[in-house]
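Quick one before lunch.
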Amino acid sequence: MERRITGYTTLIGLIATPIKHTKSPTMHNEAFSYLGLDYAYLAFEVGNDELEDAVKGLKALKARGSNVSMPNKTVIHKYLDKISPAAELAGAVNTVVNDDGVLTGHITDGVGFMTSLKDSGIDVIGKKMTIAGAGGAATAIQVQAALDGVAEISIFNIKDKFWARAEETVKKLTEKTNCKVKLFDLADTDALRSEIESSYLFVNATGVGMKPLEGQMVIPDETYLRPDLFVADTVYMPHVTKLLETADKVGCKWINGDGMMLYQGAEAFKLFTGKEMPIEHMKEFLNIK
Ligand code: NAD
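Model of the nicotinamide-adenine-dinucleotide complex:
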């Protein structure tokens, strides 16, 4: 690694806090190395207070760009020159590309999720999905699903601080896409049962299933699932959540959040480098099945 970094190497960053646990530098640097591309990817622990300076720094240092995670995803657009249509609809940016001093914000989480479905032979285009969640991951998925041509999306969330964001998503997607989008309280278990019953795919895009909510799931029990329902969890740690264990028991085909993580990175990699990430190599390297 050190031997391949020279005076010609171009920087790509990741700005978020906390961020030291991230796998993104490992993933991107391995892909650069594998393809012989002269970039280096580093994580920087930066929060909202230092964000404007950090963005100016990216420009001044002529970095090729940066990934962005919490708490900066929903704030960084203020400091950028352009925003992609999906990032605009999602109200969040996870990738910034620097084209000769012009910074454009993109969101690749939704593309990552939709590609991970495709990769597993799950074709939800023209069909209905039910999704729990209204935070960053959920909104990005809902936006991309609607843009890609999913016919109907039923969103469930608890009545917390994310509820207003869900209402906003319903409004925006109804105005800007042909997708039929509805919002329900996750506490309405009759609605949850009937919306899942008429869906091709059920997605968990909440923090339920990972620490500190590990061992819990967003559906009350296994009777909400059926063998021909596809189930996707955005959680990747643990690899198999309680929801996925239950889906497996019922006989559903399921995927975890590993594919979303890989493909959101691959989409960002393509935006930074213009090249496809070597997916098969990365799956092996990251131990993704
Ligand atoms: P966020 O904080 O923006 O949103 C959290 C969501 O969880 C909200 O909808 C909130 O209402 C819901 N929630 C929280 N506690 C709940 C509870 N007790 N019951 C029901 N719902 C509850 O977080 P985020 O960044 O959107 O992350 C959400 C999930 O998506 C996490 O599990 C995260 O690991 C996963 N994620 C995966 C990837 C990936 O690449 N695979 C990327 C981003 C996020």
